[in-house]
Design brief:
CATH architecture of the largest domain: 3-Layer(aba) Sandwich
Bound molecules: guanosine-5'-triphosphate, magnesium ion, zinc ion
Structural class: alpha/beta
CATH topology of the largest domain: Rossmann fold
Oligomer: single chain
Number of helices: 10
Strand order of the largest sheet: 10-9-8-11-13-12
CATH superfamily of the largest domain: P-loop containing nucleotide triphosphate hydrolases
Order of helices and strands: HEEEHEEEEEHEHEHEHEEHHHH
């Protein structure tokens, strides 16, 4: 079981005690976790050590995708005693909770940003999702869904691909089956793919298609075109052919955590041009000798892309400041994700 979903020899060494059992968290429900193990699915409560660590740092609460060590007690209780170090983690700034991010999923190898082709995707949204994915340490992948509803799917895919250099863009449809084989191949070798994106864009439908079974609930989107949050829990589902998908609830707000790494990767073209600016701290606004604005004026860099970068930079500064202040700001909620 665990072999097929990314088990590494070093992990097995963490669970050698007679009463210890290695596992991977499939889902979390208020204080109990469901854990995949070689002895089947185990329900476990949280051990004292884990509870203490979580109190100090909420991002260390067990999360879907985590590898962990369980302990089986003589009275048949099972507790989660240790989380293994995460290789990747998708973390976003949590609404209202200062300082700490919210971990959306752990140990995904690929973070698939699921965006419907109908209605027409907004490139700024895709860039923002990709920045979040780069920060996780996993490989981002853009998956454009519902191609059956979009006659100009290929054109849109080209536009998206241009906005996110270094990231592959797949066009899929669960209705026609387009692209599903290619998507499935990405999991070869027992990789884990997390599905992230706004509600109603087809994450659970994709998970079901990869699984070959209607295991996860899906629902029609509302008449106003907005999703309605059918999925309410993050869930890791192993696939029959190996590998696993993590289905997640639709993202409402999408705060960036104060890390510039994700932005730099998403806007590598701007970072590259910026090295040619006269001033090292050029904001590409009104400074003289700005190579970035020059590229905009010659048409080498789309104006929209510079604006998206500036927007995200402002937001990042705002988040950093708020974290530094260490208290709840007046704007306690995440900015809504338009
Ligand atoms: N035409 C078409 N409809 C699709 C496709 N994929 C998903 N849908 C429909 O889109 C609606 C939403 O799909 P879901 O899979 O529930 O979306 P989700 O992203 O999981 O939504 P949340 O769980 O709310 O975050 C459902 O009615 C699906 O049948 C597709 O490829 N083509
Ligand atoms: Mg869903
Ligand atoms: Zn500049």
């Amino acid at each position: 079981m665990l072999e097929g979903i990314g088990l590494e020899p070093s992990m097995a060494r963490a669970a050698t005690a007679a009463d210890a059992l290695l596992g991977r968290v499939a889902r979390v429900d208020r204080g109990t976790v469901s854990v995949l193990t070689d002895a089947g699915l185990q329900r476990a409560s949280l051990g004292g050590g884990v509870l203490a660590t979580m109190a100090a740092d909420p991002t260390l609460a067990p999360c879907t995708g985590d590898w962990c060590v369980l302990r089986r007690w003589p009275d048949h209780r099972v507790t989660l005693e240790q989380l293994l170090a995460r290789r990747t983690a998708v973390v976003r700034r949590a609404a209202g909770r200062q300082g700490h991010g919210q971990v959306l999923c752990a140990n995904a190898d690929i973070v698939a940003l699921v965006v419907a082709l109908e209605p027409l995707p907004r490139l700024a949204r895709v860039e923002r999702l990709v920045a979040l994915a780069w920060q996780s340490g996993a490989q981002p992948l853009v998956v454009l869904t519902k191609s059956d509803l979009a006659p100009d799917a290929d054109q849109v895919a080209d536009d998206v691909a241009e906005a996110v250099p270094d990231v592959d863009v797949l066009v899929v449809s669960v209705r026609t089956g387009r692209g599903l084989d290619l998507l499935g191949e990405r999991l070869d070798g027992g990789l884990t793919m997390a599905l992230l994106g706004a509600s109603g864009h087809g994450k659970s439908s994709l998970a079901n298609a990869l699984l070959g079974a209607q295991r996860l609930a899906t629902r029609e989107i509302r008449e106003d075109g907005r999703g309605r949050h059918t999925t309410v829990r993050r869930e890791l589902v192993p696939l029959p052919a190996g590998g696993a998908v993590i289905d997640t609830p639709g993202l409402r707000g999408l705060g960036l955590l104060a890390s510039e790494a994700g932005l730099a990767r998403t806007f590598a073209d701007i970072e590259e041009l910026a090295r040619g600016c006269r001033f090292g701290d050029c904001a590409h606004d009104r400074e003289s000798g700005c190579r970035v604005r020059e590229a905009v004026s010659t048409g080498d860099l789309p104006q929209r892309r510079l604006e998206a970068w500036q927007h995200l930079q402002r937001e990042l500064r705002w988040a950093t400041k708020r974290r530094a202040e260490g208290r709840r700001g007046r704007a306690g909620r995440d900015r809504s994700w338009r």
